[in-house]
Amino acid sequence: MSSLVVKNLAIEFGGVKAVDDVSFEVEQGETFAIIGPNGAGKSTIFNLISRIYEPSAGSIHYGEKNLLDVAPHRVIDTGIARTFQNIDLFEQATVLQNLLVGRHRRMSQNILRDFVFFAGCRAREREHRRKVEDVIDLMEIAHYRDQLISDLPYGARKNVELARALCAEPTLLLLDEPASGLNQEETDDVSFWLNDIKHDLGVTIVMVEHDMGLVGRVADRVLAINNGKFLSLGTPEEVRNDAAVQQAYLGTAA
Amino acid sequence: MQVIFKTSYNQDINILSKTGQYIRVTLLVLAMLTAPLYLDVYYLSELGMLLVYVVAGVGLMILTGFTGQVSFGHAAFLGIGAYCHSILMSMGVPFFVSLPATALFSGLVGMLLGRSASKMHGFYLAVATLAFLIIVETLIGEWTDVTGGYAGFSVPELEIFGFYFVEMWQQYYVDLGVTLFVLWGTANLLRSPSGRAFLAVRDSELSARSLGVNIEWVKIQSFGISAAVTGVAGVLLAHHLLYLSPETFGVLESLKLLLMIVVGGLGSILGAVFGAIFVSLLPVALSILRDVLPDEISQQAGLEPMLFGFIIVIFVVFEPDGISGRWRKLLHFFETFPYYRKASFVRQKSYLKTERMR
Amino acid sequence: MLPIDDVFRLTLIGISQGCAYGLVALGFVLIYKATEVVNFAHGDFMMFGGFAVLTFSESFGLGFWPSLLCACIAMGAAGFLVDALIMRRIIGQSQASVFILTVAFGFILRSAAGMIWGWNPVSIDTPFDNEVTIANVTIGAERLAIIAATVVLCTALYLFFSRSRLGIAMQASAQNQLAAYYMGIPVRRQVSLVWALAAAIATIAGAFMAPITQLDTNTGFIGIKALAGAIVGGFGSIPGTLLGCLLIGVIEPFADYFFPSIKGVSAYIVMLVVLFIRPEGLIVQTYMKKV
Q1: Which of A92, A103, A109 is opposite residue B194, by nearest beta carbon?
Q2: Which residues of B touch A91 (CB under 8 A)?
């Protein structure tokens, strides 16, 4: 069953076609990777899905929902959570606060009730805290719990960002370069987590990634694009051996 | 070093989690409650004024310190609160109806301003709020029939349930009660989704939106609650001033509020409290300074604003975390004694955050 | 209805007033483009510059033009130092702190000016104290001088930024500090130079404004109106800024004429209305953040 369906997607920035007529479908429960050289339009596709950009043509459906009808802050209500290429956390808040913002859409919010911390507020905090702790256990970030993000090292921030997305209990996770800037050991951790998330939580994953080793280990299918255009789609092995992909990465064979 | 073993989620939810905090706050509140016993009328009224500024500072802190929206016009809400309440009281509305009504009115005006400000950012907002302040000031001055115009408006006596609170200690307890309520409420905000949404909007609108935070609505809410709290401060202020005139709520007052939270330390309730103490002590320090300095300088009219200016420069350049940041470091020093190192608080290298790319 | 001569006169006054705002706003925009700092003390720089001209012409007995030049150099040096000594240290701090810091400069400058030159309004002797009659309308030459000064200064700035090596380097560092730095442009000195340039322009504005409004320590508050004008036009582009300032300048005398009770606040009302409809101003200059 397809969950995410992208059809003939296109967007222009001042005459440059950053994404040009790209179509793909993501099956529920699979790990789907998008690869391509720098500037191929991978992140732009993510930004289109999370409604940061408005496409100039094409459609995006997730399940029953037409995403183009959804306001940017409502995208998460359809079950889509994401991370960012250049980690985008709430710098002056603690890890715990960051993760609890991840629960935001599931918490009933009324500013006047919050102001007097009316009956039920404490119970609500405790209940969501429990959910957050599950994610903290999964991502093994317990010892950072009370630290400010601005005091964390890079690798920890990456984990916290992924954890924050998980706190929203998404059904589809958009990961923008989950392994960029990580060393080999940390990248291995990421591949374990991705498998855990997929198998234990049943979350569909779409990721943009440069590290072909990681893609080969976790991805079920791979979409390759270049200059905003479709190149190839298939298993990691098929895409790796595709002539067009090799040409895009390595240049024309001599 | 104090290591806290957490055994319950409640420990993180409670406002005062550390024993030290608990003791300090309890002692402070006790001292405040018994203040009328050992302070004479003059100091009591100064203390009451300090509490008024704590409330006003917390009001601005909610907007600027927590939500990251800089307002140069918060004195307008102080004015709206003071005038609205005085007018209602003079029409015979009881205090306990007038106070919430004023908070509501001020909050609604704030939400209206927030509605138009929610799409602006950075200094556009600062200048827009400044313009709002100037317009409100002019409006109060020109609307003579209701506000008394530039001639001023005399504040009715503080009357609650038919009892006149003319004694200073009675008024002081009203101030204290309202202040404690506001502080408690703001601390409550910070431990609930509303407050976290404020922080989220302050630190990254992009992520906040992707996590389902409705940025525009959060800003409107923040403006509303901040204006309501500042309006309440205006109510208390009115009873201290006894006589209102539009110039009282001008640009200088706004800047004083902003100075308070910057010097106190942006982004914490403690900062607003420290800031209020600071501006209350400033005139005292100034009079001491006047005695020390030679006459040619001390008699100059511009000494006070100049000192104002230099204090801000010194704080922003050398202690951006304000007094509350210094306080945290001090506490840390004692808790970890003798292991405190300068490196315990290395300022993170910060880079220019561009605003043009949003 | 207003007689046509009055309309013409008010319009002319409005244009010259708009140009005056524009002159002040130029400094705001220059510094903003280079550092993304809005210097709320810019109006006070202008006031201080005006007083500096006064000092050079009276105490040193120089004529108007030599005093203007000297004052520009002195204020330019002061602007350079403000950036080099203070602003450079606080890069990356929260906006609220930076705003309040520049506001604090304003306090210091105002107090200092009051202590040095006194608190009463003074006037500067300028070559433009006669009156000019155009098509039945008599108007002070100082108002026309402001228009001329704005045109000359804008042309000069345009040529400077598009033709001179230094100007192009400044533009480069404003657009991408890191890239400019890698290309061997001394970005930090460049930014300080922008501050110097802005302070010098403020001095010129102060000198040309002085005959109209007289000079006292509160002259600097005109900066807020200039800021309003710049925002109406959409901050960040010089043509937009001038457009907005002219708009505000022309609307103001008419609004004051028809609604005397809200004298002085029409500029802010115009600004709030424009911002309500177009939150980014008339000419938009921001882009989406890359994610």
Answers
A1: A109
A2: 203-204
Looking at CA atoms only, how far is residue B126 from chain C in angstroms?
A: 9
Q: What pLDDT band is residue B349 in, cutting at 50, 70 and 90?
A: very low
Q: Is C25 on the interface with B (CB under 8 A)?
A: no
d(CA C103, CA C40): 5
* B170 near A CB under 8 A: no
- Given a cut of 50, whether residue C287 has pLDDT beyond it is no
Chain C residue numbers touching B316 (CB-CB < 8 A): 90, 93, 97-98, 100-101, 104
Quote the minimal CA–CA distance from C261 to chain A in Å.
Answer: 39
Kindly state the average pLDDT of the residues C163-190.
82
Beta bridge partners of C139: C132
Look up the ipTM and state it: 0.89
Classify strands A31-35 and A204-208 as parallel, antiparallel or unpaired: parallel
What is residue B57's predicted lDDT score, i.e. its pLDDT?
Answer: 95
Is B357 in CB contact (< 8 Å) with chain C?
Answer: yes
pLDDT by residue (tens digit) across B26-37? 899 999 888 888
CA gap B183, B55 in Å, rounded: 8
Neighboring chain C residues of A43 at a CB cutoff of 8 Å: 291
C46/chain B closest Cα distance in angstroms: 18
In a domain, B326, yes or no: no
| B338 prior amide bond cis, ω within 30 | yes
Whether residues A130 and B9 touch (CB distance < 8 A) is answered with: yes
Query: Residue B1 — pLDDT band, cuts 50, 70, 90?
Result: very low
pLDDT of residue C285: 59
**A208-239: b or e for each residue (b if 16 or more CB lie within 10 Å)?**
bbebbebbbbbbebbbbbbbbbbbbbeebeeb
Residue A172 DSSP SS3: strand
Question: How much of chain C exceeds pLDDT 90, in percent?
Answer: 8
Residue pairs spanning A and B at CB distance below 8 A: 117
How far, in Å, CA of C180 to CA of C172, rounded? 6
CB contact under 8 A, C288 and A53: yes
**Amino acid A81: pLDDT:** 93
Same domain, B6 and B144: no
The whole-number pLDDT of residue B185 equals 94
**B203 and B61 within one domain:** yes
Instruction: State yes or no: pLDDT of C94 exceeds 90.
Output: no
* HSE value, Cβ hemisphere, 13 Å, CA-based, for B24: 8
Facing B196 at nearest CB: one of A81, A97, A122: A97
Residues 310-339 of B with CB under 8 A from C: 310-313, 316-317, 320
B51 and B25: one domain? no
In chain C, the number of structural domains is 1
CA distance A235 to chain C (A): 28
B229, B272 contact by CB (below 8 A):
no
By the 8 A CB rule, do C231 and C281 touch? yes
Task: For residue C31, give its domain range.
Answer: 15-216
Distance from A85 to chain C by nearest Cα, in Å? Answer: 6
pLDDT at A252: 58
CATH no. for A1-43+56-79+170-254: 3.40.50.300
Mean pLDDT (chain A) is 88
Determine whether the interchain pair B211/A76 forms a contact, defined as Cβ–Cβ distance below 8 Å.
yes
* pTM listed for this prediction: 0.88
